[in-house]
Design brief:
Blueprint (H helix, E strand, L loop, with lengths): L4 H29 L2 H8 L3 H8 L2 H8 L17 H15 L1 H12 L1 H23 L3 H23 L3 H5 L2 H17 L4
């Protein structure tokens, strides 16, 4: 280990603690009410450190909402199982990735969050739809419909905690949404 490794490690730990605190604060307070001072206090550091690493509240928010959906390789999945596999994948993401929950909460009330959510879903789900129907307007429409299902369920299940949706078992969510997502991606155009 060199003398430069220790400061780099401390820097990485500081960045990680800032991001963790910011995710929690943005999720709890929304973008507008979250402050750099509160985030720094939650991270146990001086607010100047947040500015040092991220430049501004906007820069910190951009780092917090940097998300990759890491969609499964559908080439190895039977086409009739695609909807169920995708719904299961999204449930895993929503349940185990606080970034997506933060992005959804903030995206509902903040245009920058909404724009990032649109970018994530159009940039990552559109190619998925194109795999089944080719490029064009139909693929974009289908991708938007898939997003409506997974984002809608995430909103009522994880953000609003609407009883019936929040109380469904994972298997029930997959059973109800899987066929709909499947139809959006693979059914002939109505």
């Amino acid at each position: 280990m060199t003398d430069t490794d220790a400061p780099r490690r401390r820097s990485d730990v500081t960045r990680a603690s800032i991001l963790d605190a910011a995710r929690a604060r943005f999720a709890a307070d929304g973008y507008e009410r979250a402050t750099v001072r509160a985030i720094a206090q939650d991270a146990g550091i001086d607010p100047s450190m947040v500015m040092r690493y991220y430049g501004s509240k906007e820069g910190l928010f951009a780092a917090v909402i940097d998300v990759e959906l890491v969609l499964p390789d559908l080439a190895a999945i039977p086409v009739d199982d695609v909807g169920a596999v995708l719904v299961g994948h999204f449930l895993d993401l929503w349940e185990h990735d606080s970034v997506l929950q933060t992005l959804l909460r903030v995206g509902v009330t903040n245009e920058a969050g909404a724009a990032r959510m649109r970018d994530v879903f159009s940039g990552q789900i559109l190619p998925l739809a194109q795999r089944f129907v080719g490029a064009g307007e139909d693929a974009a429409r289908r991708a938007a419909l898939v997003a409506s299902q997974v984002l809608g369920m995430a909103l009522v299940r994880y953000v609003l905690r609407f009883g019936p949706a929040a109380d469904l078992t994972r298997a029930d969510v997959v059973a109800w949404l899987g066929p709909t997502v499947q139809r959006y991606l693979t059914a002939p155009r109505p």
